[in-house]
């Protein structure tokens, strides 16, 4: 987990730093540039084709427009059309060359500190902004892993002793922890995305680049995914509290029945459509894909569900309660020990699902160790 967080965060930081550096460089060149008359001496579209190792061709187009201009008593020449990136689409490259024929008088934007550096078209390139927005997918993933780290525990916590010889199970994630990664991802996504988009639309001249008008709305639409998940868990927390699951044993055995008690308190009156509790054994194994590559797969080795309650009412004064029992079958494998590194691995867990007509489905998982 730590290596995944470091990789995603480092990749995002690298690309964001590169993009931000280009954005600031572009802003400096455009803000510092001063106009001066010039004359075009040469104009053509230069096409460059690159073939990669898989014989795929990539063609780029660059409008080459050479022009001369005077600053004081000195005459300078340059062929930069745009402030930063000189490559563009074939259509735009042809348009630029058509507008800047040989002998045409033009306005040249030069740097007063370095008069030899100049460009023709005072245009904001959206490409470095797009690089930052794309890098946000890596940063958001890294933040999600980091925020989820405290509750994505590897080892199973043993049942805690409760009253009357019962033992309470610890959920994989409570309601507060479940929404933490979605909150972190949403905050980072919209904060940095808002800064990037705001910087472009505030500084760039109209008409804005078509790529910006497409990429920015699409970026914020994608940001609705973690935001919806955050409000999903937040809405659950406003209606109900974390479920309490207790069992009458501190050790689970293959072939041995154990009793289970369920209780969940609610903050407001709620209609319960269905409460079901399941016992699941998950198998983690390695298989070959159709292409012959080894991939890790997860599947349900064993699964059984009990409908513990249906069409009932829960409220602050009347918590949702239920009792049931489970037996890990004798023909199923026990939990794979933590010290065993090979595959396949088997992990057991109890799952609680509650469906209500007006609220999202509540789901909680309780990892357990089943011994043979």
Structural overview:
- By secondary structure, the protein is of the alpha+beta class.
- The protein folds into three domains: 34-119, OB fold (Dihydrolipoamide Acetyltransferase, E2P) (Beta Barrel); 127-239, no CATH class; 244-371, Immunoglobulin-like, CATH 2.60.40.640.
- The protein is 33% helix and 35% strand.
- The longest helix has 31 residues, at 2-32.
Q: What is this entry, summarized?
A:
This protein has 6 helices and 16 strands. By secondary structure, it is of the alpha+beta class.
Q: H/E series, N to C? A: HEEEHEEHEEHHHEEEEEEEEE
Biggest sheet, strands in spatial order?
Answer: 3-2-1-4-5
Rg, Å, rounded: 31 Å
Characterize the overall form.
elongated
Biggest sheet statistics: 5 strands, antiparallel
Task: Assign the CATH class of the largest domain.
Answer: Mainly Beta
Write the layout of secondary structure elements.
Blueprint (H helix, E strand, L loop, with lengths): L1 H31 L1 E18 L5 E15 L2 E5 L11 H10 L5 E6 L7 E2 L7 H22 L11 E2 L5 E2 L6 H29 L6 H13 L1 H16 L4 E4 L4 E2 L4 E7 L5 E19 L5 E21 L5 E7 L18 E11 L6 E7 L1 E2 L1
Helix pairs in contact: 1-3, 3-4, 4-5, 4-6
């Amino acid at each position: 987990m730590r290596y995944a967080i470091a990789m995603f965060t480092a990749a995002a930081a690298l690309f964001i730093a590169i993009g931000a550096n280009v954005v600031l460089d572009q802003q400096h060149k455009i803000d510092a540039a001063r106009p001066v008359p010039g004359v075009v001496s040469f104009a053509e579209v230069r096409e460059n084709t690159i073939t990669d190792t898989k014989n795929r061709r990539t063609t780029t187009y660059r409008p080459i427009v050479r022009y001369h201009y005077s600053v004081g008593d000195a005459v300078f020449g340059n062929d930069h059309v745009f402030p930063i990136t000189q490559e563009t689409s074939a259509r735009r490259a042809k348009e630029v060359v058509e507008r800047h024929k040989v002998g045409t008088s033009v306005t040249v934007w030069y740097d007063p500190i370095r008069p030899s550096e100049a460009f023709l078209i005072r245009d904001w390139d959206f490409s470095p902004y797009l690089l930052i927005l794309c890098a946000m997918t890596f940063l958001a993933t890294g933040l999600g892993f980091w925020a989820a780290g405290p509750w994505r525990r590897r080892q199973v916590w043993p049942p805690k002793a409760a009253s009357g010889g019962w033992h309470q199970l610890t959920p994989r994630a409570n309601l507060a922890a479940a929404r933490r990664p979605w909150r972190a991802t949403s905050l980072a996504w919209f904060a940095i995305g808002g800064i990037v988009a705001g910087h472009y639309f505030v500084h760039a001249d109209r008409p804005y680049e078509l790529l910006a008008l497409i990429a920015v709305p699409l970026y914020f639409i994608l940001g609705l995914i973690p935001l919806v998940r955050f409000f999903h868990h937040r809405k659950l927390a406003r209606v109900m509290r974390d479920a309490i699951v207790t069992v009458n044993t501190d050790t689970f055995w293959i072939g041995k029945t154990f009793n289970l008690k369920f209780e969940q308190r609610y903050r407001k009156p709620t209609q319960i459509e269905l409460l079901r509790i399941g016992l699941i054994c998950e198998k983690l194994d390695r298989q070959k894909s159709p292409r012959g590559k080894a991939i890790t797969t997860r599947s349900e080795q064993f699964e059984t569900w009990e409908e513990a309650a249906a069409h009932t009412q829960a409220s602050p004064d009347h918590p949702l309660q239920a009792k049931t029992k489970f037996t890990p079958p004798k023909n199923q494998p026990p939990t794979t020990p933590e010290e065993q590194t090979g595959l396949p691995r088997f992990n057991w867990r109890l799952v609680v699902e509650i469906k209500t007509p007006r609220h999202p489905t509540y789901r909680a998982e309780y990892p357990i160790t089943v011994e043979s």
